[in-house]
Amino acid sequence: MPSIEITAKSVEDARTTGAARLGVEPGAVNVTVLEETKGLFGKSQVRARVESPDAVEAPATPAAPVAKEAPAGRKKVERAPKAEAKPKAAEPKPEDTVPEPVVAAPVVEEAPKPARGRGRSKAAPKVEEAVAAPVEAPAAATEAPAAEEAREEAVATQEDGDRFVALIDELMEAAGLDVKAKVAGLQGRYVNVSLDGKDSSHLVGKHGEVLNALQYLVNILSNRRTGNGVRSSLECNDYRQRREQTLMKMAHKVAEQVIERREEAVLEALPAYERRIVHKVISEMDGVETYSEGEEPNRRVVIAPRG
């Protein structure tokens, strides 16, 4: 039965293209999916075999090689055809494999570890949404303010914002996504960039994972090109604003339990920019204090009773 292999965005695209090349109607072909892969931001691609008994002209197939006769006196052994090797997935570059996907603030941020309370609760309430990044200005950081001010050298300009917009638009075009970036504001060394378009839903992902990864990628590429220390903070569909409100409510709730029980509570692992939100909220409350423990990417905030 005449057949050809087609690479297309979907099974239906493979059916339509294969039928056209075989000279038959789409309903007269059989499609067998050989491989299906997911690309960047959820885009998929399939490799399929399309065959039809009604094909006008079957593609030429190479003649099978003639097997050589085994020498007399020796038993002929037929070897099974070797399985076609699957293409190896591209290994991530060392600089792209990082435990925390977003470079949203300086590394020095932890407050000194205070004396612990009388006990530690077995489990603190989990944040309603998993790890994601909020939009915040560097000035809002509460983990080691002196170190923050010492490193606050770069100041974002409109030129930096235009450069980030051009870089993001370039990435979106390469990914085949209908998304446009625009500068939403400048805060210290940060450029707040909003993303909008009919494909913008692809850029948030589960618990903001895609948005975090995109922000980290944009900051890495920008730093390699300029090295001026200016960073971007990406927002899409108001996700980061909603995430910040969730963290603040969670911090208040856990702090009240710590005061009541006089026991420490260990939160789930959070990135540095989210830990700073918790530190800031707790610093404004009486009877509790915070510190961080553990190593990235499993570093956690501990809320402890004070006094």
Question: Can you give a write-up of this model?
Answer:
With 307 residues, this protein is α+β, with helices and mostly antiparallel strands. It folds into 2 domains: 3-51; 138-305, Ribosomal Protein S8, Chain: A, domain 1, CATH 3.30.1370.50. 29% of the residues lie in helices and 19% in strands. It contains 6 helices and 9 strands, in the order βαββααββαβαβαββ. The chain has helices spanning 11-22, 145-151, 158-175, 209-225, 239-261, 272-283, and strands at residues 3-8, 30-38, 44-51, 180-187, 190-196, 231-236, 265-266, 288-293, 300-305. The strands form 3 sheets. Strands 1-3-2 form a 3-stranded antiparallel sheet. β8 (288-293) and β9 form a beta hairpin. α5 packs across α6 (272-283). The longest helix is centred in the last third of the chain and has 23 residues, at 239-261. The radius of gyration is 28 Å and the shape is elongated.
Report, as a whole number of angstroms, the end-to-end distance: 82 Å
Count of DSSP-assigned helices: 6
CATH architecture of the largest domain: 2-Layer Sandwich
* Beta strand %: 15-25%
| Lateral strand order in the biggest sheet | 1-3-2
> How many structural domains?
2
What is the average of the pLDDT values? 75
Main beta sheet: strand number and arrangement?
Answer: 3 strands, antiparallel
Report low-confidence residues grouped into runs of 5 or more: 58-78, 83-112, 127-151
> From the helix content, strand content and strand pairing, which structural class follows?
alpha+beta
Number of strands: 9
Taken from the alpha-carbon principal axes, the silhouette is: elongated
Helix share, percent: 25-40%
CATH fold-level assignment of the largest domain:
Ribosomal Protein S8, Chain: A, domain 1
CATH top level label of the largest domain: Alpha Beta
